[in-house]
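Recall that a protein's primary structure is simply its ordered list of amino acids. Everything else, from secondary elements to tertiary packing, is in principle encoded there. The following example makes that idea concrete.
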Amino acid sequence: MSYELDMKEIERQAYMSYSEDGLVDIAIGFVIMAWGLLLVMEPTGLIVLLGPLGMGIWYLGKRFITVPRIGTIDPSPKMERRLRNLAIFLLLLGLIAFAGILISRIFGSAFTADHSLGILGLVLAAGVAVLAYLFNASRLYVYAVILFVTFAGGEILAGTVTNFDAFASSVIIGGGLILISGIVVLLRFMRKYPRPELEA
């Protein structure tokens, strides 16, 4: 029993180290902030590229920054199941939210239609909160709150402020805060785990 608990703690610590590079933070912050900027500049068709760009930032960062410093981590079967369940949960959550908003648009549910952006923020916040739980990264809970406040608050402000795009500005600020935080976390990670010198 003690051995099993020790192995669980080792795995937990390994994933904490692997997730403290700030790359998830940077990817989330970049996608959210870039989305807000695109809303202002109005080439909204480019929004579909943000997801792949965010994944690209995460993947390249892992490959060229994280792995050379702390190596790779092979997830245990239990962790693989948790990651798979997370992906399924996020997919279902997104589909439910999309279906709810679509139905409200078609059948005229005033509350859902009027608060669709706040609902989207709630879905994003829930996804980030699940990530926080999975990787035991408490800072991600803060990001979840920022995302919800950003979307819900921006939607409320958009109904009262008319001289500029209050929602887009709120999204840019929220994404920027997460991005800056991620950069700080990444710099700390790089100082804590310097890149090993190659032997001549």
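DSSP finds eight helices and no strands in the chain. The longest helix spans residues 77-107.
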